[in-house]
Amino acid sequence: MLKFIAFLFSLVFIFLSPTTVGASYNVDDFGAKGDGKTDSTHAFLDAWTGACGSSSPATIYVPPGSYLLGRAVFSGECKNNDITLQIDGTLVAPSDYSVLASSDSWLSFQGVNGVSINGGTLDGQGSALWNCKSSGNSCPSGARSLTFMNSKNIVVNGLSSID
Length: 163
Fold this sequence. Notes:
five-stranded parallel β-sheet; 22% helix
């Protein structure tokens, strides 16, 4: 009988204990458009601001679609060390390589801790730059697609990068 009462108290304790439910930030809710044409940079940065400012684990969700992004810097320190960027679509760089000509990176995470990037594709749309370089003309060096600077506990899983 004593074991049964202890079991019941355990169940009550488990069900009444506060659980940590992570915050979720869908980039579409911040104005992003998955049409591959509309600049969604500000929407992504706004979603990052929300996730970074959350005291609980947070997920930034990128639905299927093609999201045009200019140069974006996702900066820490954040209030939590568990931010997941779940990409079910494609992040697309500007097709005009001169837009990123003065940048060393297209997407950059700086001073973050505990960021995971899962899935998705980065499309650097680099064919025009590669054509410029192969023609022997003077061309910019080109931006790296993704960089992490002064960051730790980074996980990248299932992310593809093309062009």
